[in-house]
């Protein structure tokens, strides 16, 4: 999205000196393109959107309207899915800890719970005994090497004794149905996706399993600004590249006419480029020969780790030459490491606006009310109209739960 100084000046006058700008249209396009890419390789593909990545209800409603699933990892996210109208049967409950009351309600409503440990199996068995006429739908999260050098702490070791136990117990139960085999790995590298599919096939075939779903989780790159792309080693894979990596394996390796639904659980791949962060430049000063610009945002607003966020400085003179740097762009917090951009080429002046791109992934959900309350989220449509989809928080919001 292109911003003018006059536009941002008007917006800050009404909504405050920093805010997120949400592009729902971009999110929608990402969803549709990703789904189309996978269905071109494997027609029975469905998307379960990862709520933990960005649970702005406006985005969750889009997924539901497009027929997608909700992938949740807490009672809070499960409750949100229900509030935005997601039917039980389109909710998938993952994660290492699941509140028992949410598990019970979802199972009895027809949703799917992916088991992560034997303690969760015991809870499901208890629900099954108490409700003998209900058919409970469960999946099993499995863990196996995919070449990323990480020994994951999640799910059942596919070669371990606990995995055999959970299979045996589900098979013995009269009203617990194994409907999904699930895996998820943190690496977004394309090279890990073929081993995911191959590993899942090996488990399915080796154990004679025929669940209705194979769920390969998330962990994909999405669209991003070229300035961010250049900070990664190698090429950023396309949606089509991920789809081809698993589609070929499944089409060739699935036995007979068995064609389960392929489930993927993208988060960053859909939400990463659908939000910008706008922050006013509070001051610019020189410290020991270095120019430092303080903006009314912090690294906690972007959650990019070691990566430098793509940034555009919007000032009153768009024709001003790009010189006057380098300028270190820093946040408003009292932390020395709150540096958003180490060396911006310049110029930057007090009263300008810094627009940080590609901040849709994990920024909203991980930002604590540290020093200042959280900022608003504005949804901007193609015609320029603005809707407040999250209000600015106040000190009352921060302290109301304290006694």
Provide the fold topology.
Blueprint: H1 5-15, E1 18-22, H2 24-41, E2 45-50, H3 57-65, E3 69-72, H4 75-83, E4 91-93, H5 100-109, E5 112-115, H6 118-130, E6 136-143, E7 156-157, H7 161-172, E8 176-182, H8 193-207, E9 213-215, H9 226-229, H10 239-253, E10 261-264, H11 268-271, E11 275-287, E12 290-295, E13 311-314, E14 327-330, E15 339-344, E16 353-356, H12 363-366, E17 377-380, E18 386-390, H13 395-399
Parallel strand pairs: 1-17, 2-3, 2-10, 3-4, 4-5, 5-6, 6-7, 6-8, 8-9, 9-10, 12-14
Antiparallel strand pairs: 1-11, 11-12, 11-16, 13-16, 14-15, 17-18
Helix pairs in contact: 2-3, 2-10, 8-10
Please characterize this protein's 3D structure.
32% of the residues lie in helices and 23% in strands. Strands 1, 11, 12, 13, 14, 15, 16, 17 and 18 form a nine-stranded mixed sheet that branches. Helix 2 (24-41) packs parallel to helix 3, helix 2 runs parallel beside helix 10 and helix 8 packs parallel to helix 10. The mean pLDDT is 95. The chain contains 13 helices and 18 strands. The chain has helices spanning 5-15, 24-41, 57-65, 75-83, 100-109, 118-130, 161-172, 193-207, 226-229, 239-253, 268-271, 363-366, 395-399; strands at residues 18-22, 45-50, 69-72, 91-93, 112-115, 136-143, 156-157, 176-182, 213-215, 261-264, 275-287, 290-295, 311-314, 327-330, 339-344, 353-356, 377-380, 386-390. It is elongated and about 70 Å long. The longest helix is centred in the first third of the chain and has 18 residues, at 24-41. The protein has two domains: 5-22 and 274-398, Lyase, Ornithine Decarboxylase, Chain A, domain 1 (Beta Barrel); 24-271, Alanine racemase (TIM Barrel, Alpha-Beta Barrel). It is α/β, with parallel strands linked by helices.
